[in-house]
Structures are given as structure tokens and as C-alpha cells.
Amino acid sequence: MHGRGDDRFRLTEARAAATGVTDGCSMTHESAYPPAVAPATFALAFDASPTPMIVTDARAQDNPILWVNSAFLALTGYTREELIGRNCRLLQGPETDQQEVARMRAAIAVGEPVALEVLNYRKDGTPFWNGMTISPIRDAVGRIAYFFAAQADMTDKRRAESAMRGTNDELERQVGERTADLEHALAQKTALLHEVDHRVKNNLQVISSLMLLKARRTPEGEAREALQNMAERIGALSTAHRMLYSDGDVAHFNLSDFTSDFLSDLEAGLDPERTRIEARVEPIAVAAAMAAPLSLMIHELTTNAVRHAFPDGRSGRLTLDGHREGDTLVLVIADDGVGLAAAPSNPAGFGRTLVDMVVRQLRGSIVWAEGVPGTRVEIRVPLQAVA
């Protein structure tokens, strides 16, 4: 135990330590403070500082508090007499984070600075968040003599953060509920569109079947051929709606999938030794609203080529290419048949007129040209018209 004189000496020394000026202890070089200013002036300045500060005695058992300023007393509610000689753990309580306390003790044990925020308790039991920075003070030979801690009440900051988290949680909850409502509404809309496509497909199949039945009972000639052609066109529309229903995406139409599906049906009625069909179509997704005109266009061009490009048992090849060039969808249907000029005349034909009409509807362009040999049709459609 120290006598009163020793206590006064050590208290004065502690104040000086807080300022960085002692007889044998210094945190900084002597030139770090103006020589004309007395150390006592620095001690008074630290005493009057609004920042809570303490100095503990690293050389005494249990590292007791040696000096506190008035701001620290105001923060904690203790008197100076109640604090001097006690360890700072008296500020800890049931909710103090022991992991942070362990981190602080580890830093003190090895003499390293440490910054942390912990929940402390005032004398009356009121909790507050204490943000502190602890630094060791070494003597002239480099041994740790004191620890200096500057502190701040972080309670308001923590409350603001908690309120912000609560606000964010509430916003996330509301967004989650709204998202769930929208997903539910979208699911219902999608189911409805699926049902509509399904019913349209079934109705188109029924209409196609009725027209084919009527065609079989109609004498051979233009009327019978017209009924068969219309039935096939309706079948192409039914195929497009079937794909929209089965793919699960009622908003888009995959041109490659439709082409593959449609051509497989077309090839089923052909002699593979006489007529070959080759397709290279990229998987371009177009708007579902454009499924009908595009399917009609592809159907018309391919079936007309099969029917008219290879007369009198002539063998040949039909190619279909679909790709994207920037913002343009490009379709090229070509055959090595007899060509446009040599094809049999068909005054009642409607196919070319229908294709031209569909291209205009899609705000595109079409070029009919003689191939070498055969016929080549190139169609360009702005993708924004089908996207």
C-alpha cells in the first residue's frame, strides 16, 4: 500500500502520463509539445476535456485505475474516489460481450493498442455503449508503465443503427410480401395464358381436322386443294400454340424449336431419297404475339418449295437458314429446283401473296430471286418487331 504522499505523487504522475509528459515516462519525443507550456497545463487540459479519459497503472496488481477526468465521471456516474484503485471491469455487466473483453485483455497482455465498442454499465445500472481506444505508455527503458484510454458514448449511434436495421427489416418484409403477391399474380396470369393457348391449340386442331375431312369429300380440283392448304396452315398455327403451351414460356416463341418441329412433320410425308430438307436456325426467341405470322411464313415457303420446285419426280434439296444480324432477323429459304420462271403456273395460288402480307405486317423486307439453280427467298425482319 502507498501512503498519502505516494498517492498524490502517483496521481500527479498519472495526469502527466495522460499528457505524454512525465519525469521518466513519455509517449512522444520531448519536441512534441512546446517547451514554453508547462506539463501542468496539459494535465489541466486533459482534466477539462469533454472526452472521457482514464489512466491505469500497468505496474500495479490488476492494472487499477490511477486517474480519471471529469468527463469520465459524468459518463459513468461514479465519483473519483469510487474509481481510483479499481479495475475497469467494474463497468462490465451481464450483457457485456466477453469475446470483445477477451480481445481487449489479449491486447493489453502484449502491450498493443486496441479499439473496441462494448456494452458497459453506469453506477445506476443503466447500460451504455462504450467506444474506447486503449494505448500503452512506456517508460524511458521501453517498459509499459501505464495504459491510457480515450472513450466515447456510442449509445445514440447504436440506437440509430438499430432503428435503421429495423427499418430495413420492415422494408425487406414489405418488399418480400409484395414480391410474393406479384409472383402469385404472375403465376395466375401464366396459368391463364397456358390455358388459353391450350384451348386455342385444341380448337385449331379441330378446325384443321374438319377442313381435311371436308377436303376428302370434295372432288379433286381447286376447291379441294384450297381446303387442304388452309387445313395445313391452321395446323402450322396449332403447332406454334402447342409449343408456347409446352415450353412454359408463354411470352416468347423459339424459332429454332418451331422450325425443327414443323420440318419433322413435313419430312414425314416426303421420300427422303428424292427430297432432302436441311435447316440451320439459331434459337432466336421472338415475342409470342409474332408466333402466328412467322409460323405461317415458314410453313408457306417450305411447303410451296416442296410442292412446286421439284415437278415430274425431280429430286432436290431445300435449305432453311435463320440467324441474327445485329437487330435484324434474317430468314433464307432456298431450293435447287426448277426456279420461279419454270415452276408450273398456279393462278389460284395464295402462298406468295400470304408471305408478302406477313412480311409487311412484321415491317420487314423480302427478296424473291432465281437461284443457280432453283429459287432463293431472303426475308429480313427488325427484331424489335418480334422481340
TrEMBL record:
Residues 38-111 form the PAS domain. Its EC number is 2.7.13.3. PROSITE patterns: HIS_KIN, PAC, PAS. Residues 195-385 form the Histidine kinase domain. The keyword Kinase applies. InterPro entries: HATPase_C_sf, HATPase_dom, His_kinase_dom, PAC, PAS, PAS-assoc_C, PAS-like_dom_sf, Sig_transdc_His_kin_sub2_dim/P. GO terms for molecular function: ATP binding; photoreceptor activity; protein histidine kinase activity. CDD domains: PAS. Pfam families: HATPase_c (PF02518), HisKA_2 (PF07568), PAS_9 (PF13426). SMART domains: HATPase_c, HWE_HK, PAC, PAS. Keywords: ATP-binding, Chromophore, Flavoprotein, FMN, Kinase, Nucleotide-binding, Phosphoprotein, Photoreceptor protein, Receptor, Repeat, Sensory transduction, Transferase, Virulence. Residues 112-166 form the PAC domain. The keyword Transferase applies. This is Blue-light-activated histidine kinase. It comes from Methylobacterium gregans. The gene is lov.
